[in-house]
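Project outcomes to date are best conveyed with an example. Our students and postdoctoral researchers have been running inverse folding experiments weekly, and each run begins with a structure described purely in tokens. The record below, which covers 268 residues, was selected by the lab manager from last quarter's runs and is presented without edits.
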């Protein structure tokens, strides 16, 4: 299905595309929409973000075929050259941009099978331009400060600000930090049996049990809030489910160790 192209000043362009994780019917539909939009607009290449799909998909016309590059990465490049570029996002603007004239790309196809491409000349330049789009970047991010200011002044609303980078602070980290402080506090009580009376040891043991429960609650809060943030910032690698689960598992191991110490050592 033909989709409308994202153009200035739509801030969607500045979002960082997430890696495709599921190679399913939805992916097939995305690729079809990109291809149909390319045909309708007579384009030789198109990134998914340019039709509002925040996924790392680039489709490039090669002869009569439309080849999808999914989760593409540059693994080799050489021979920098300067050429004039135009952007789908900024119609009516052209600038001179330095890019590699030869690149080697590793990517996946629609069946999740990896493949390599050696691109040269215009094909290499087209790929790099659309590769930039996947990371919320356009050619204005590759020009010097003076040229960027001239473009900013020329545009009706100025350059669109970055709206896709990962935030510097994740609120889930407060849950994680709190759980770590509680665990450290519990570990500090291991010294109590050495110098405290039996009554103080009993009180410490009781407090430790409450602290263990508190740490568990903080971890539960971390997990659910991290899931919420992962939906808000899909472009951030730290928001991927595997990283969240890994962090939680590490905290659980730490808590299990200190809990064992509480019941075997601090308990009166």
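After processing, the design step wrote out the following sequence:
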């Amino acid at each position: 299905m033909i989709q409308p192209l994202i153009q200035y000043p739509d801030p969607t362009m500045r979002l960082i595309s997430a890696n495709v994780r599921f190679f399913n019917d939805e992916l097939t539909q995305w690729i079809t929409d990109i291809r149909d939009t390319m045909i309708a607009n007579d384009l030789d290449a198109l990134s998914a973000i340019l039709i509002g799909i925040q996924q790392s998909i680039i489709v490039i016309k090669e002869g009569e075929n439309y080849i999808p590059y999914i989760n593409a990465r540059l693994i080799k490049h050489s021979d920098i050259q300067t050429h004039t570029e135009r952007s789908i996002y900024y119609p009516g603007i052209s600038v001179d941009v330095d890019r590699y004239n030869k690149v080697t790309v590793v990517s996946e196809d629609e069946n999740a099978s990896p493949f390599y491409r050696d691109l040269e000349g215009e094909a290499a330049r087209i790929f790099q331009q659309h590769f930039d789009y996947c990371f919320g970047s356009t050619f204005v991010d590759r020009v010097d400060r003076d040229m960027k200011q001239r473009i900013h002044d020329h545009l009706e609303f100025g350059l669109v600000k970055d709206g896709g980078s990962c935030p510097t602070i994740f609120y889930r980290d407060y849950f994680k930090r709190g759980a770590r402080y509680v665990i450290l506090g519990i570990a500090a009580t291991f010294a109590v049996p050495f110098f405290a009376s039996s009554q103080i040891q009993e009180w410490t043991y009781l407090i430790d049990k409450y602290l263990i429960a508190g740490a568990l609650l903080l971890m539960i809060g971390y997990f659910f809030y991290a899931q919420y943030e992962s939906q808000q910032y899909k472009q951030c690698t730290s928001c991927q489910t595997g990283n969240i689960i890994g962090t939680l598992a590490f905290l659980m191991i730490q808590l299990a160790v200190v809990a064992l110490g509480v019941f075997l050592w601090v308990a009166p």
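Strands lie at 45-47, 57-62, 65-86, 94-108, 114-120. The longest helix spans residues 198-232. The training component of this project remains on track.
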